Amino acid sequence: MWLKDKRVTVKLVQRRGGLEGWGLSRVVSSHRWCRSDTSLFKGIVVVWLQAAAGGTLAMRRDGEGGTMSVILDLPYLYSIIISSVVAIVYTLMGGLYSVAYTDVIQLILIFFSLWLCVPFLMTNPHSLDISLTAYNQTFQAPWVGTVELDQAGKWFDDFMLLALGGLAYQAFYQRILSASSYTQAQVTCFASSGFCLVLGIPSILVGAVAASTDWNSTAYGLPTPYERNQAGSILPIALQYLTPPYISIIGIGAVAAAVMSSMDSALLSSASLFSSNIYKNILRKQASDSEMQWVIRISVVVVGLAGTGLTFLDSSVLVFWLVGVDMSYTIMFPQLVCVLFFKVSNAYGALIGFMMGIILRFMSGEPLIGLPPLIEFPGYRLDAEGKQTQYFPFRTAIMMLSLFSILLFSWLAAIIINKGLLPEKWDVFKINRKRKPSAGAAEAEKAKQAKEGVSEAKQLLDNTTSF
């Protein structure tokens, strides 16, 4: 594994705060079928990572724009544009240091500010006891829903999506590969899972209080935020109208600062993905440090503008987050599993599995972005809101089909090429395993890769911290 073979690089990354956008691509690219002789497939993988990062950026920018719209009472369009300009400018000015320091500040602000606001939200005079409104119709529908047996497939699909979709996020490996030992990496994962539960409690309480509020008695008035299609901005709305002014300022300001911190992280992540893995490794292998700095600057601006454009598709942060983790689960997760656990996998199978996953996913439709389905799985019908919905666990089915496709076509490709059924010149990904290197050659190749990894880490660190 890369963490074991290239510990020098890992420690270098750790000392400088980690490399945004570098973690998962290094795990993938260090695999036997994703090295320099397979740059085409490597580029395809990284392009998809870039797209996933763009979706995450849109999600964070949507959250920042929605918060500003509530605070300043500006039109949503202006709020998005202002937040985008600010994020792009200070990311260009701060580089990697702006990410390393703001991540710590973000965690502190979001933790203390939300828990500070919870008592004031729970005791505000406009809301009923949330235990009474959990299952009873009051000002609005009960905030605790129900799970019907005929929806079991959809719930199972959502569960698997949330449980496994995040495992293919580059941000996860960015942190794990920065750990100094296996133990530290494991402890970080376990501690983070528990901490997520603690951070999730205030969000649940905010939603419960909002669903238990008589909005007609507040300055917000009727209709309710849900009826105005502003449910995605319920946190800043609840803080502004249901807490004292000084608490509202603290809470909304902390949320805005935390979201802005995530935006610069996503910007630099996407920029470094493109500059290091596509431009440097594929397009311009001899690019100088100065040229790479300008590539990163331009990438930050381009990705920032792309993320800004995506936010106009929908005003909900949850929509962009779900779409991003959906793509990660159905397309990237099978690739990651095969890279790490199946030696039979190779670039041919991975390429076919990638194409099959993305085609099937888009043909299945996505109501969150208005994409109609071309494939109607069993159980396809109208939901309670009158929308056509796939109740079959189609995401998990697509993920499994993609996984099996990678393994099947990798095995077939290995047999065809290793038995000489095709000319060797047709083996564009160089998977011929007949010519196994000697032990000395293997060690030399291993040392060469480790040296290249250290050099690449140093160059990318210098570029992202100096521009």
UniProtKB/TrEMBL annotation:
Region (Disordered): 439-467
InterPro entries found in the cross-reference section: Choline_transporter, Na/Glc_symporter_sf, Na/solute_symporter
Any GO BP annotation: acetylcholine biosynthetic process
Any coiled-coil regions, as ranges: none
GO cellular component, one term: plasma membrane
This protein's UniProt keywords: Glycoprotein, Ion transport, Membrane, Neurotransmitter biosynthesis, Sodium, Sodium transport, Symport, Transmembrane, Transmembrane helix, Transport
Transmembrane segments: 39-57, 77-97, 104-122, 159-177, 189-211, 246-274, 294-313, 319-342, 347-364, 397-417
Keyword Transferase (UniProt): no
Matches recorded under Pfam families: SSF
GO molecular function, one term: choline:sodium symporter activity
Bias type Basic and acidic residues, positions: 443-455
Chief place of localization: membrane
Subcellular location: Membrane
Membrane topology: Multi-pass membrane protein
Gene3D superfamilies: Sodium/glucose cotransporter
PANTHER family reported for this sequence: HIGH AFFINITY CHOLINE TRANSPORTER 1 (PTHR45897:SF5), HIGH-AFFINITY CHOLINE TRANSPORTER 1 (PTHR45897)
Sequence similarity: Belongs to the sodium:solute symporter (SSF) (TC 2.A.21) family.
Protein name: High affinity choline transporter 1-like isoform X2
Source organism per UniProt: Notothenia coriiceps
